[in-house]
What we know:
Elements: H1 11-16, H2 30-37, H3 46-58, H4 77-80, H5 118-124, H6 134-160, H7 166-190, H8 200-234, H9 242-250, H10 259-263, E1 274-275, E2 280-281, H11 296-311, H12 350-385, H13 393-418, H14 441-459, H15 472-495, H16 497-509, H17 534-546, H18 554-583, H19 595-613, H20 616-624, H21 630-661
Antiparallel strand pairs: 1-2
Helix pairs in contact: 2-3, 6-7, 6-12, 6-21, 8-9, 8-12, 13-19, 13-21, 14-15, 15-17, 17-18, 18-19, 19-21
Amino acid sequence: MHSAPSDPLVLPFKDFYPGLPYRPSRLLFSPFAAAMRLPLRSPALLGPLLAAAALSVVAAPSCSDVRSLDCVPEAPSEHLLIPRDGDHAHGGHGGHNHHAQPIAELNEDSYPTPPPSYFWLDIKEPSADQKRYPGLMGLHALCMSLAFFGALPIGIALRSVKHAWHGVTVILFYTLVVLGLFSSALYRKLTPNLYEGSKHGPHGYFFLAIAVALSVVDVFSQILRLATYIRAIRSGEDRFSFKTLWNYVVLDRDEHFSGAEAEYTNLVVAEPDELEEAELKTKDVEDESIPDEQDETAQWANDVRRHRRHISYPHSVASERTLFGAHSPHRSSDSLHDTDPVYPWQGKSKREVLRFIGRAAFAIGERVLVFAGFVQVISGVVVYTGGCRGGAINICLAHLIKGGIFWCYGLATFARFLGSFSEIGWAWNRAPRHHGKYPTAEFVESLVIFLYGITNTWMERFGANPGDPYTTKQLQHISIAVMFWFAGLVGMGIESKRVRRWLAAGATAAVPASTRSQEAVAEPPSYVASFNPFPALCIGITGAAMSAHFQTYLFQVQIHMLWGYLLSGFAVMRCLTYFFLWLGPPRSILPSRPPTEAVASFLLACGGLEFMFSTEDLTVAAMRQGHDDVMMFLNVGVAITCLAFCWTLFIVSFKGWLKSRHQATMKFHGSA
């Protein structure tokens, strides 16, 4: 038991908290250190303790007289200060001095020789006396890749237009999966287990179970449609026709059980509700009334607006909402004060709502399987190369999961640039229909960022022992997670139409009551789109912070700087996108394809890939093999990103080509 000296730096600690143990080897300024070591459930105790600490520092006597009883000899700081990064980690992410210079050469004593891996024995150093079968593993990887990145997305595109060949892609998908499973099982049978505790196989079977479940739901839906068709024939509502049977039961096309009507189904396409000289717009006209001819003031205002469009910059539809806008033919459907149903399920029966939820869940499940294939690729590479073993598993998973999220986010951003999700206004365009009934892309981004932050806040302590102090690295990562948490909340709040109405209440309340009317108030042109910088802000700050992340080795520092700069570049490009769209908001239903978004998506995807490359196992292995070259890592990441972008372009273009063949051709005209 240590006895506390009569040091004024220690007395406030004993007076306020006599029950807490005093450890002179762990305290320099005892009240400050005690404040930092208090449990989080005692925030009320921090105030008096820090105040007493400040007073004790001011009242501390001079130690010029070493014989003074009030002086305590100063011990070496390394015995009094808690290490900055704790002692329950090693390597590039723990157990280091943040002021030390990064090491250029690998210290082999810090990293034991890894056990043999499949890749090492199959490719690097194959044994002459033991036959290996890398071809089987290559066949497994090829078949599974073709199934999840070829047949599956093509099948999703075919389903979107209810194409007859969709069933062929389903059969092809399961054929490739069976071949992949067979080659993998044969490889495992002929090869000893070199990776204990691998989860690659169980996760793969789980994802396949989801695929089978979706197929079962699809077949069950066909059975229900067949039963409906048979009942219609028996009741005399329709006569049997193989074409109707094929279109309705197999392809799920909306038929009316009439041969004459079925022939012309989907051949007539509604024309746009409004074509203006300067732009292509579509809007709902059911709720628009014809202007009152007796209202000369409103008619004059509309004439002035039509005249101004010919002599000035063309306004967006939103900018034409005036105090007379309730009866204006240019009244937009995206006003904050619409009385139409806000969500697509409002105003529908319970059966229709369940049908909508089922279709949405099925579509999301199909697309999630593509990302599940990417997860399996990453875990398969890790198992085959023998990475992420032992104590490095948590750090490795953190890099792979977070980098994988940024990678997928980059591909989705590139798909938006190409025109995906243009039907709901996510392709930097005006939504052709249902505007305001679906969340904006920025809301979804903010939601993902919020979920990312709220989960990672509690996961940063994985691997630490109970009672271990918070390390510098943990505080760094927890603070970033908290930023994601609350910045995501702010982003979702900004995207809420209700919150926007609340924020606009101050302006509308300032209008004198005597001059108020029931007419619509003009909204600025920027209301037509969403300009939410918080998702980009989170990613940009993360990149800037992680580019300064301390690492033990110089090569690791350079790799972290590389992907940190790439993520920061994405944030800059996204802000430039908002800047240019703020100057000229989208006026057409066609994807606007801002070039800054093409660059932003590339930087984001490549940054996520380099994030995954910065795992400690990979960087140490590169230094061992003499491949610790930043340019090589960057070029490999750029090449893979370009390959993935080509795949994305093919899938999006193929889906667009299918849609163009199943609908009437619509002509475009210049907006200049």
